[in-house]
Design a protein that fits this description.
The chain is built from seven helices and seven strands. The protein is of the alpha/beta class and 296 residues long. β2 and β3 form a beta hairpin.
Amino acid sequence: MSSILDDTVEVPRRTMTLFFLVDTSKSMEGKKIGAVNESIQEVLPMINDISATNPDAEIKVAALLFSCGTSWVYDEPKSASDFVWQDVSAIGPTPLGEACRELNSKLSRNGFMKTASGSYAPVIILLSDGDPSDDFESGLAKLKTNNWFKAAIKIAIAIGDDVKQETLAQFTGTSESVFPVHSIDALRKMIRIVAVTSSQVGSQSSAVGDTSKQDEVNRKIAEARQEEISSEKPSSDIGERGGTDQSSGSDDSDGSNGSNGSDGSNDSDGSNGSDGSNDSDDTEPTSEPESYPDWK
């Protein structure tokens, strides 16, 4: 006689897709793109560990490169263990509007969000150092109608002192989800902090209490970043922009957290709610460095 336990069927885990949108334009050449290459390679095993120990969700990774057009590293999301990052080079313009339109096409049941067991709202990490070279406004307007994008956790890493953070804030929906970095070391650390934190929170079954997943990610990134800044020692491996080789010390500006809860209502593009909103802001901003390093 079989017991009830003998008939137990393992419930398949849902999927959470982590998207990297990587600016590979000419201005990213040199140490910037080198740091991005190294950091994504280093963080993939960390994401795989989070996925392997998560009973609720499997984390898959997708990466979109944009410069001379757009291209996906793979034609479908891959598990972190199967995702092999090949070093990319930097050349061409910054077609962020085209990248928005391409991302929109994949944020659908007919694109990358078709997992049979269901999907959590995705995590989207944008890495860029410059201004869009195309019609960003219309591309973003189209993307903002996508319900998967509305529900997504969105983080932007603003690389260097020439990037227009307000443009990246348009993408994320709030300046509190834009994290600026002004050194190679800070860039490496921020990619790790953002990818690991957003993977942990995004693959949970729900946010903690009344806090949205976006708010929780912002808060944890800001806290982790503050800890890094407090513990780091001055570095002299990157000199001032246009000056002699002099340390800038800590990395950058404002590490405050914020709110960007979004709602994952369903229409033709998909469903999944991530969250409500919460306007907490209890992390003190860090100060801007007196000088920025030479990225080249």
